[in-house]
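Assemble and predict.
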Amino acid sequence: MIESLLVANRGEIARRVIRTARALGVRTVALHAGVDADLPHVREADEVVALPGPAAYRDVEAVVAAARATGAEAVHPGYGFLSESPALARACGKEGLLWVGPDPESMELLADKVAARNHVAARGVPVLPGTADAVTGVDGALAAARRLGYPLMVKASAGGGGIGMGVAGNDDELGRAVATAASRGRGAFGDARVLLERYVSGARHVEVQVLGLPDGSVVAFPAERDCSVQRRHQKVVEETPSPAVDAPLRSRLRAAAVTAAQSVGYRNAGTVEFLLQPGTGEFFFLEVNTRLQVEHPITEEACGVDLVELQLRVAAGEDVHVEPVEVRGHAMEFRVCAEDPVRFLPGPGAVTEWAEPSGPGIRVDSGYAAGTTVTPHFDPLLAKLVVSGADRTQVLERARDALEAFRVRGPKINLPFLREVLADPEFTSGTYDTGIVDRLVASRRP
Amino acid sequence: MAEIRAEMVANVWKLVVTEGSAVDAGDEICILESMKMEIPVVTETAGVLQRFTVAEGDAVQEGDVIAVVA
């Protein structure tokens, strides 16, 4: 095992990684950016490095300098920030630091959504009808639309996290969606190219957790995650196993995920995302996220594994074997965010009250506490309520009590919205798809 | 005359229209950025955008006036 680890992140995921590292006897180094020096992750690490400012979490030089200054042996990037940066992975390699993530070559290939799509399609993984090459500009998009037909999903070619995504049902909407995706893609990733894919309504978003081992084999964890409850194309509630997946479909999803990951020689933890048509059982590859996902805890709870420990062991080059994993129940995650529950607009502020639920099957991965401040500099995720139980019914019951008991005051908070999801018959029945939040909002009384 | 105000703590990312231009109700006049989200600000009043009281890069508090339409 490694002896020391720089956690190049903040908030709940930094705490999450530090927790496992400490349990394994690994010395931890945390970062803060001044404005978040009061957060719990800073106190829980053995050593702390102050960054020059909030932007430095995305600065390869600053992260490498922090590792050098503290003598850290390895770097865990968490999610977001530099977690999918081949530049940081390479810089670590050059400095003799262990990178807790996949090789930069596979990260690069998978970051280009068009290249990734073509790569896995050539190996028999189903993809949606779409552009085989990235498109630049509205004219190219209109030409592609003639061939593909509407409705279309427009994505930034280098994108992720729902950034710049939009649906177009006609030429006018396509023009606007391409302009948005190109501008957001240029702003966020320095790449204005876009990708068009057939838009499937009534679909579910399911994903398979994979782990590429040092011997070249890939493990696909048996409980797929259903992430169909989204607002702004971003996940807000996830569960595992998916209520829409039966055993034969599960086998096909896992096989496709292993094929996709093995085709790039994938090492360490990753997630293969699919769009599923529940009626037909047809599914289509969306992308591979080359990092630990926000929603990884539901897999940990349902499968009884510690994904961060596995990541560290793979990165250290240990001879890791994952015993055949059995799904031992059901788990759900609720993302507690600093945003208003009605329109989902963000609202930072000083936290005056913070009370987390506890009890059997309740796990809270949080990044804040009373007396800390939620600033406008970072994403609005404050905590993840992870609920597990023997079956879905028990999880729904436990979640109801836990969401009632969770109290946060100060910033805007989406807890009432999460309770609304939990009370929605479409959600409780398990028949929901990615349109659930829009329908929920539309059904509210004026 | 109508004052358009910020709905949350944010930074002014982009001013979309120029001072002196005609705007319709529902037009986007600027984009705020907060917590990694872009939040379009629209005018509910038609008229002429008289002036912005903020510049790109400024920080605004909830309730701060962003622009005046008349």
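Chain A has 15 helices and 21 strands.
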